[in-house]
């Protein structure tokens, strides 16, 4: 049985809140932080804890984009009974988010033993951080940044939704990094790519948190650390979302690319020196 203290939960909540929506891999950073605090990264309860506190970050998205989400959900419900409403972009977008979530759910359930076991290694995190950096840099250079959020299509949503699988299988690749990079390759501008990444993350991450809750509670993580970690994650994530949207409106993703490479190389060094246990 692995216990996570309230103090450790605060630290992990901050890490989750800062990194969940930045394209730097929240899972990777959580595993690094857990390793530095001698928390076993592949323990079932720890994996569950990490998934649950992600719900705090998702709650921050729900609050930050409440008006947008309310508009989209309302359009979806109206479209269920009104044929004319089905031609509106918001109605179609709601269905696209649902459809784009299906692949990651199926892969997540099928590959759970690998995700919770061998793929949870910090060596995988380090390699994925570096490889994902290359993918992000190429996507930012290749993309023409000419399409806005209103120009998104079903094809865009499915490609971006399926790209979440990379982060699911390879912690360190980054869900945000994978989705934003894919959106950039599809020629969406950086703000549209970032917002699409947020919306597609809501059902996937919420579902993962609910699914893992039983493991986190049943395997030794108390309710207090879970509650504290989730609350801290919410507060920090809200600030992180506001900052990121302002940042990408005026800057490329190069700063994140450089940061990821530095962290990946440093992590390999720590693992190679025996400072961290993979």
Structure summary:
By secondary structure, the protein is mainly alpha-helical.
Note down, in words, how this protein is organized.
The chain is 76% helix and 0% strand. By secondary structure, it is mainly α. It has one domain (6-269). The model has no long low-confidence stretch (mean pLDDT 88).
What's the overall average pLDDT, rounded?
88
Overall structural class, as computed from helix and strand content, comes to mainly alpha
**Terminal-residue CA separation:** 19 Å
What does the main sheet amount to?
none
Structural Rg: 18 Å
Low-confidence stretches: none
Strand content: under 5%
How many domain modules? 1
Number of helices: 12
Write down the overall geometry: globular
Please report the total strand number as a whole number. Answer: 0
**Which percent bin holds the helix content?**
over 70%
Order of helices and strands: HHHHHHHHHHHH
Keywords: Antibiotic resistance, Cell membrane, Cell shape, Cell wall biogenesis/degradation, Hydrolase, Membrane, Peptidoglycan synthesis, Transmembrane, Transmembrane helix
Pfam family, one: BacA
Family: Belongs to the UppP family.
GO biological process, one term: cell wall organization
